[in-house]
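Quick start: read one record
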Amino acid sequence: MDIQTMNSNDDYSMDGKSLQHNTGNNGSMRTVRVGSRSIPLYPLAIVCLGLLNAVLMLTAIVIGVYCGKVSGGSNPYQITAQALIIEVKQIQIMHTEAVKAQEEVRHTLETELGNHRQLKLQLEQVKALSDGLQVQIETLQMEKATLTADSSDILKSCGRCQSGWLLFNTSCYFHSVAQPSKSWQDSRADCIGRGADLAVIDSMEEQVNLFEYLPKRDPSVRPWWSGQVGVWIGLTDIQTEDNWVWVNNVTLQNETYWIGGEPNNHGASGSEDCAALMNRRNPKATWYDARCQDNKEWLCEMEPN
């Protein structure tokens, strides 16, 4: 197509066809030559613009219809987001309630801890008071036993015990301080020959009385566990080990006055089966076990006449 403009006399060639653009010097209508025909330029442009406008309107309508369908339809992502928002709100509510419950538990725990501390303090005070009362009771018992022992020393036997015997409360005692030492069996035989038996200590008062009456030993001069030191009493576990029985067939129960670490059945043969006592410093710790064949002093006990 060849396009020619009469004013400029310029010719353009396109694909072998001529397109002539005529513009008159006197304002005549411009035309476009297509082949052998001349078509006015402006009506052609208007027609083309109208067709383009129709296409654009049709495209806009299609796009509008499509967007309407999309906006009117369900969006799974939008539903998921809404569900997540609701879930987050529920979690926030649960978290708030959990925090509140935690604060209530913490407050309750602090209150209980305060009550526990107060109760513990009260128990400690009660224990301290109880310990103080126990010490006072033991002190009074010691004082009573000492006074009883002193009064016994003053009264002596009062005619109720044999010569050479001493009266304590309801018993007469013979201490073989002037006699040769004997084994536990021989000591008991001597007591039986005197109408008595080896001493049975069954009360704290009696223990304290004997502590006051019998001579005190100095452990630094001679070891207290050596063979001939101490005084035999009527207690033995010769029948059953660790089952200590008095000579009156009464089994030793709660109140005992063993020296710390005793009885230990010490020795290669493990034959410390007889009990002796030795006064040192503490009236509550004077007993120990020893070999029955060791020679010691002894203590007899009998009822007064």
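Residues 190 and 291 are 18 Å apart (CA to CA).
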